Fold:
Amino acid sequence: EKKTFIIDGKAVADKIQTEVKNEMLKLGVIPTLAVVLVGKRDDSAQYVRMKVKACAAVGIRNKQIDLPASVSETELSSVIKTLNNDPQIHGILVQMPLPSHINEETIVELIDPLKDVDGLTCSNSGLIYQKGVNAPLIPCTAIGCIRILEFAGINISGKHAVVVGRSKLVGKPVSSLLQSRNATVTMCHSKTANIEAYLKQADIVIAATGKPLFLQGSWFKKGAVIVDVGINPIKDSTKKLGVRFVGDVDFESAKQVASAITPVPGGVGPVTVAMLLHNTMSACKLQQQRQKQASSSSSSKEKKSS
Amino acid sequence: EKKTFIIDGKAVADKIQTEVKNEMLKLGVIPTLAVVLVGKRDDSAQYVRMKVKACAAVGIRNKQIDLPASVSETELSSVIKTLNNDPQIHGILVQMPLPSHINEETIVELIDPLKDVDGLTCSNSGLIYQKGVNAPLIPCTAIGCIRILEFAGINISGKHAVVVGRSKLVGKPVSSLLQSRNATVTMCHSKTANIEAYLKQADIVIAATGKPLFLQGSWFKKGAVIVDVGINPIKDSTKKLGVRFVGDVDFESAKQVASAITPVPGGVGPVTVAMLLHNTMSACKLQQQRQKQASSSSSSKEKKSS
Ligand SMILES: NC(=O)C1=CN([C@@H]2O[C@H](COP(=O)(O)OP(=O)(O)OC[C@H]3O[C@@H](n4cnc5c(N)ncnc54)[C@H](OP(=O)(O)O)[C@@H]3O)[C@@H](O)[C@H]2O)C=CC1
Ligand SMILES: NC(=O)C1=CN([C@@H]2O[C@H](COP(=O)(O)OP(=O)(O)OC[C@H]3O[C@@H](n4cnc5c(N)ncnc54)[C@H](OP(=O)(O)O)[C@@H]3O)[C@@H](O)[C@H]2O)C=CC1
Structure:
């Protein structure tokens, strides 16, 4: 019997980082990512530190903007607008969640779509919906799942993919991407009756529910490819912090039936961070194109008027 | 045994038209739909006539703009821009297909999203992706399918819906809508292996492939609800025009197994036209809201500066 392939997310991330470094050499400018952190949540601060460190490793610059939890929506809005108008800033990341007095959707919609490295603005959603993997800026985790499947040599076309979860951040975009790569996609969620019946038929499973160890090995089809997006803290008194992180999939039982599977940690996590660097580089390119177009159209106007 | 419910699209359309008329009374203005027809294709001209007639029946005004097939992309673009800027125009419909020298996507993207009664601009796609049935402007056929299911008293939540087809016009938006109504949705297309296996499990089927009489009765689950979007001409020497129109579903065999089914003609077709009227009315409302917001924000600015 063939051994289950445990997909090394770190190796996928390294590959993406190398790509980013090579592409950056052609840019002629150093991309800068603005990271906006509101409040002092430990987990958010930790995520931001991780992202800033990853930027440094490939030579992307950061501008970190720390705001108090008491900041008003209007103040935060004007911070975003300033970043939009600053030609030195190529990507804008607003770390979620925001304090409850701020409407996250309103803030996200303010971000210049060409600086939207999280791919969450409505206009980028529309492009993902229409163009799938060819969209310019796609949520990092969603496109990260595709990169993982490619790395593992999985042919997506014609396969049945079951996506469990339908969030704007993961489930929806990853479904669009798989479909644009010609998978037949079924999207499951909390209102799905009998999830196991769908999983039993899936060649590819993307698990993004936020329910620790929810999906059991016995639910999958023999030979399925399983990408586990979940990162869920569960109590563990043997750990320094009293918690460890597990996926949405019961890894131990699932790896008995899967042909390939991502572990947690060390699976989707590092790939997501690498894709943030990739998106920052892409955002920088998109803005160079916009500038070029603007200057060529204004020079053609000058010509006309002269 | 229960008799199969043949869903009367004309009755659904009548219900929507009554809604539109009632809503129009509250608007205080008469909505106007601009219909742009490029070239002299018989089928396109026929569709336009049908739409104009439907508008007249509820009291929506039309402005019809006929352009020669030789019109340039630049000229057509400037027509769209003029319509965008005209406060007397509330909806803009560009009849597809356009001549091959014109990029359809470029033209669609020029339409003011609040006048986009076909719901095809990228920004409206993003809203459908994010908000499902709560999006402001949705492609008429896609939302029409939902109205048909509602009319037939079908509970969507928790059901397995299989959508066959993934076009921007029908398959994709109807999938998003069904999912937002809590169906578990599988999207099939020409690269799907073994379509029958998916159909055999479907509680609700939306057929939108453009393949005449493609889906056979024996492929469906007993009791399935079938919405047949297809309108396909096939040769028929007994008809005046030498053709008749059939759906994507083999109606005769399918009605033996379905609990409810739409016929062709007389199913999705009239509902699509009724939803165009609905979208024109909605577009008019959206522009009234925008105007109100603009005038209230400019008056608050005036107050501040005084
Ligand atoms: N590796 C990484 O870098 C990242 C990891 N994550 C992790 O991925 C997981 C999902 O994140 P996210 O998508 O943001 O989470 P959300 O909470 O936004 O969405 C969870 C989705 O799962 C569905 N769901 C919940 N319970 C069930 C159930 N019992 N059966 C089927 N579906 C269910 C929900 O359905 P419904 O819509 O009906 O409520 C919802 O669509 C989390 O563990 C998160 O920490 C997220 C982002 C990045
Ligand atoms: N009732 C009404 O008012 C309307 C009716 N229609 C009718 O609906 C039908 C579909 O229209 P539209 O969506 O615009 O058509 P498109 O041609 O744009 O899309 C057809 C879709 O069907 C898929 N498909 C084609 N062949 C097969 C197959 N053998 N098995 C599975 N899937 C297949 C295609 O897959 P792939 O993407 O892989 O190529 C594609 O996604 C047409 O008959 C059209 O006339 C359309 C709009 C309005």
Observations:
- The radius of gyration of chain A is 20 Å.
- The longest strand of chain A covers residues 32-38.
- The pocket of NDP (ligand 1) is lined by residues A 141, 164-167, 169-171, 188-192, 195, 208-211, 229-232, 268-269, 272 (CB under 6 Å).
